[in-house]
Amino acid sequence: xxxxxxxxxxxxxxxxxxxxxxxxxxxxxxxxxxxxxxxxxxxxxxxxxxxxxxxxxxxxxxxxxxxxxxxxxxxxxxxxxxxxxxxxxxxxxxxxxxxxxxxxxxxxxxxxxxxxxxxxxxxxxxxxxxxxxxxxxxxxxxxxxxxxxxxxxxxx
Length: 156
Hints:
The chain is of the alpha/beta class. It has two domains: 62 residues, no CATH class; 94 residues, Rossmann fold, CATH 3.40.50.620. The chain has five helices and five strands. It has a three-stranded parallel β-sheet, with helices on one face. Strands 1-2 form a two-stranded antiparallel ribbon. The longest helix is centred in the C-terminal third of the chain and has 15 residues.
C-alpha cells in the first residue's frame, strides 16, 4: 500500500520551480486534487510546481487563486470556453478561488497590429455589455458566489 504522504524536495523539483517554496507533504488529499486538475488536461506545465502549490494550500489552509482571463470581444462565450470553465469549477469545488479576469483594456485596443479584423477596438459601452454577458454565461458553470471578478484595466 502506498504511503499516505510523500515529500517533494529540491532534488525532485525542476529548475523552473521557485526555490523559495518550502516543500510541503504530498498527502492523499493533495494527490486527489492533482488528479482532478489533470483530468481532461493535455498537459500541466511544471507539474511539480502545481503539486507543491496544492500541498502548500492544504498545509496552510490558504486557497489557491486561479485566474481565467477573457477579452470581451463579442457578446457570447463559445463552446471552447466550457473546457476551461469546467476545470475552473472543479478547482472551486476543491476550495480554491477563481478570478474571472475581464480583458477590458485589451478589448479596447483590439488587435494593435491591424492584421486581425475580428478584433477591432471596442467602445467602453460595448466592452461593458460583453463583459456582463460573459459573466452571466460563465456563471452557468462557475459558482458565482465563489468567483472574483477583476478587470485588467485595474493594472494598466
